[in-house]
Write a structure and sequence with these properties.
This protein is an alpha/beta fold and about 350 residues long. The protein contains 8 helices and 21 strands. Strands 1-5-2-6-8-11-12-15-16 form a 9-stranded mixed β-sheet, sandwiched between helices. Strands 18-19-20-21 form a 4-stranded parallel β-sheet, sandwiched between helices. A two-stranded antiparallel sheet has the order 3-4. Helix 1 packs across helix 2 (about 105-115) and helix 4 packs parallel to helix 5 (about 270-280).
């Protein structure tokens, strides 16, 4: 499908160093104050009014915006499919892609797209802002400008970055390793279990040793995402009724179980019984830690050994965001049984460490 987009007037009318497609989905980054002092989305085609530096790039910059910008709290799998389709339709024409997105669910969307975009050989950079681009102290201009530089960067004619990333507050993070950890400061995202892929200072310093290996697969997208999944977060005092309520959801296929520390859970029979029954009836349960950093090591303590015995899968050092979107992706591809279990604990896009 031929995309309809707005071209930003830059310093490259004829011969450009690269072409970048900016996809505006919504979020704080694209807000302005109306006459009532309320934040409303603005026409993102007018981005040059707020980030005039863009005119100095020797790049082709195209903008395509959602007709109805979406607050990221309202993001659904259908929006992921829309983003993936836009990237697919513009893939041959562009060298890199920027997805401007609200911060609240950015880590979920970046994780989902990392799986949905198969055989990716170009950068897809998610970014946004803690303050609207129209505000004097906004972090939006820097995040947008550096994201564009990263998306356009090449080495020997090949894209430097060839994966889905989050860029925020001078750090480039692997998308499916990122997590929002801050709502009041500009350093909103962290990647506790994996190093940053680049750091922006006077220059952009790339950490190539942490990049994904280049893929030999042909680029394509998967758009069948299964939403018959749930997240169950354990807490002291959680009742068996709560666990049973989740595990008995009609049509449920998978649960991401958020446990304590290195994968530990209460051993009370009223907690373990419904989990065991869920596994026995075919529900896949993937164990991830509630900790920002660290990993699940099932069996290290008695409180996690029981989970292994009933068939819960250890999710290693995956984030919750990566675990749930990976599960949605794999169920959407029709995987089940041992093939599904093997894929869940194997690194598909660098979302987990393959070591024990």
């Amino acid at each position: 499908m031929k995309l309809k987009y707005h071209r930003i007037n830059t310093a490259a009318p004829d011969k450009a160093d690269a072409s970048v497609l900016i996809i505006y989905t919504g979020g704080t980054v694209g807000m302005v104050l109306d006459h009532n002092k309320s934040l409303i989305p603005f026409d993102f085609q007018l981005i040059m009014n707020h980030v005039p530096t863009l005119s100095r790039f020797n790049l082709i910059l195209n903008v395509i915006a959602f007709e109805d910008p979406v607050d990221s709290s309202n993001i659904q799998p259908d929006h992921w499919v829309k983003i993936a389709q836009i990237i697919k339709d513009g893939y041959d024409e562009h060298d890199g892609f920027i997805v401007l997105h609200g911060t609240d669910t950015m880590a979920y969307s970046a994780s989902a797209l990392s799986f949905m975009l198969e055989g990716l050989k170009k950068p897809v950079i998610f970014t946004g802002a803690q303050l609207p681009v129209s505000f004097p102290r906004s972090d939006a201009p820097e995040n947008i400008i550096t994201s564009i530089e990263v998306a356009a960067a090449k080495k020997n004619g090949i894209s430097v970055i060839q994966e889905v990333c989050v860029y925020f507050d001078y750090l480039l993070l692997r998308g499916n390793r990122s997590k929002k950890v801050e709502s009041q400061h500009f350093n909103a995202f962290r990647s506790e279990n994996y190093p940053s892929l680049a750091e922006a200072g006077i220059n952009i310093e790339y950490h190539e040793q942490f990049f994904l290996p280049e893929t030999d697969k042909t680029f394509g997208i998967t758009t069948n995402i299964c939403d018959e999944v749930a997240i169950l977060k354990l807490f002291p005092g959680i009742s068996g009724n709560v666990v049973e309520g989740i595990t008995n959801i009609h049509g449920l296929k998978g649960i991401v179980l958020e446990t304590f520390g290195s994968g530990n859970a209460p051993t009370a029979i009223e907690i373990m019984r419904p989990l065991r029954k869920a596994v026995e009836k075919g529900i896949v349960i993937l164990n991830v830690s509630q900790c920002v950093g660290g990993k699940v090591t099932q069996g290290a303590y008695e409180t996690s050994r029981l989970l292994s015995e009933i068939g819960v899968i250890g999710g290693k050092d995956m984030t919750t965001e990566a675990a749930i979107t990976k599960m949605m992706y794999l169920f959407g591809k029709g995987l089940s049984g041992e093939a599904l279990r093997s894929s869940l604990v194997s690194s598909l896009r660098g979302e987990l460490s393959d070591r024990k």
